Amino acid sequence: MKYISKFSIGVFALLFLVLAGCQDEKNESPAAVKMDFSFLMNGKPLALKTAYQNAKGEKFTVSDAWLYISDITLKDATGKAVYEDKSGYYVIQKGPGVEKLNIEMDSIPAGTYSSLEMTVGVDSVHNHDITLVESGLDPGRAWTWNTGYKFLSLEGTCLLNTPDERPLIYHIGLDQNLKTFSLDLTGNGKLVPGGSANWNVKVNLESIFSGKETLSFYNYNSVKADPVSSGVIADNYANGLLSW
Amino acid sequence: MRKNFLLFICSLLLVACQKPGDVPLPKEKDSSAVASNKPYEFDIPVYFPEYEARIPSDNPTTTAGVELGRMLFYEKKLSGDNSMACATCHQQSKAFTDGKAVSVGIDGIVGTKSAMSIENMLWSNRFFWDGRAASLEEQAKEPIPNPIEMHQSLDKSVEKIAADTLYPEKFKTAFGTAEVTSDRIAKAIAQFERTLISKDSKYDQYLRGEYQPTNQEMEGMNLFLTHPIAGQTRGGNCGDCHSGVLTSGLPDGFVAFHNNGLDSLEDMDPGLYTITKDSADFGKFKAPSLRNIALTAPYMHDGRFNTLEEVLDHYNDHIHMSKTLDGFIIDGVNEPIPEGQPIKLGLTDDEKAAIIAFLKMLTDEKFVTNPDYSSPFKK
């Protein structure tokens, strides 16, 4: 009898340990954030195929807009990067029959953050190596392995006063045009253990057309892998493309 | 007594630690059934885009589903007079096309569209030239009852398959029940079609560092991938629509649909407009993958071009203007076009030949001879 009961204790102890091991660890739970993006033109939600005017009064429509978001980082008050997503590349898009407007971030250490940083584009290492097709990278959004991925794409029509309309095609890529944006989280950056937050980020498309240089569609209706003209456009949107 | 207790505890432990989402094994003790349904293991090159999320959650790809789907793909009983299967218009040796401008059904009725190649369908989101099917499962159900194609109702098809002693057991292994339904027929065919992956062409070998293209092939590849800047950068403008290593339109919404200047407005087939009823979509068709293009003549939705040379000549010299002509084509010119003049791509004869040399690199001998994709039936 004595022998059997020791055995039973041993078995129950084993059972307990195994079942306990099958549950999640109850250390401080990480937090999660859902980022919702919205495409805006001059402060209002982007309507595809609707006529807008650029800063020079030239009319245009947009049929498809998308960008690559990468290297999402959360920094604390000292500027230290506490959370960094170095391997996620996210397409944010509004186009014909397609809307990709969310990024879900999980496993964020609970804490109080001061800034959210995001890069529009793909880092130079991944931008030139087809074997590094990590989460979210789609070679269909690249030109070649010399020039790399498109970072921002805006397509539509320029409605100019000429006999034929011109296509509006901005495919901005190239390492030189990688732009990082920093959004202030002061007062809004507390993430509690096990909690989840919703952050809304605006994509202000009009920033593409003016800033360092006010664009005319007569000169800038189609811009691709040319360093000079793409650089002008990227320098424009470096100021204000992403905001709260 | 102790031994039984131990066995009981061990089985409890196994149950406690089971992860959700395991493929359920059939419950009977029939060892052949237990062994023969597993998740299908795809072998996808590292440089292809992601695919797992593209498989519908209500139709995971399993070995038994794929095997059943292969049988059904080659099964002539799915046609009214038992003369045609899916494979009749989708022949493996022609990268799953049939070498005809437009396909012909069991009643000898000539259709209006060219049979599309079935390859790398994991990275496509809309099917048929006009994009009317939103999944492979949906697409598979259409040719069977279509009077100008296989001309047999889905109900009749279910009846014939259920009556064939070959099938009920296969359905049981694949779907857990011997009951044949048109949904399950379509699901099995879709599972099989997802396994048709083309990834061993000379282009793939080049991407893997296993093949060194000729100078002409390299020039063709660069032209293919480059959008020209008039007077500045030479380009064939192909990659804008035939994108990335798959050379197909991106599988998002209707992004992959374009009007490529085949016709002016009066003669145009409505294409995507039929689905969206948006006049901006008039004359737009799916930009399919160009892999194995050397094997899939004739070309375009109605098979109007017999050779790749004719295709290049179309893009270079015969673009028809219309309100919905694609912006990439309007913008894609090698020499500046004076106002009001027709759009010309402006490639030289050598450049066109180079692009064709690159297109031939997209032929995948392994794909068209892979026994896993061939008919399981003896002739």
What does this structure look like?
The complex is a heterodimer of chains A (244) and B (379). Chain A is built from 3 helices and 16 strands. In chain A, 14% of the residues lie in helices and 43% in strands. The model of chain A has no long low-confidence stretch (mean pLDDT 89). In chain A, strands 3, 4, 5, 6, 9, 10, 11, 12 and 15 form a 9-stranded mixed beta sheet that branches. The longest helix of chain A is centred in the N-terminal third of the chain and has 20 residues, at 2-21. Chain A is mostly beta strands. The termini of chain A are far apart. By secondary structure, chain B is mainly α. Helices cover 33% and strands 1% of the residues of chain B. In chain B, strands 1-2 form a two-stranded antiparallel ribbon. In chain B, helix 3 runs antiparallel to helix 7, helix 3 packs across helix 8 (182-194) and helix 10 crosses helix 14 (349-360). The longest helix of chain B has 15 residues, at 2-16. The termini of chain B are far apart. The A-B interface holds A 4, 7, 11, 14-15, 18-19, 22, 49, 63-64, 93, 95-98, 100, 130-131, 133, 135-144, 155-157, 162-164, 166-169, 171, 221-222, 224-226 and B 2, 5-6, 9, 12-13, 16-17, 46-50, 207, 222, 225-227, 229, 232-233, 239, 243-246, 248, 250, 252-255, 257, 276, 280, 327-328, 330-331, 339-340.
Question: Notable features of this structure?
Answer:
heterodimer, A: mainly beta, 3 helices, elongated, B: mainly alpha, two-stranded antiparallel ribbon, 15 helices, 33% helix
What's this model, at a glance?
The complex is a heterodimer of chains A (244) and B (379). Chain A has 3 helices and 16 strands. With 244 residues, chain A is mainly beta.
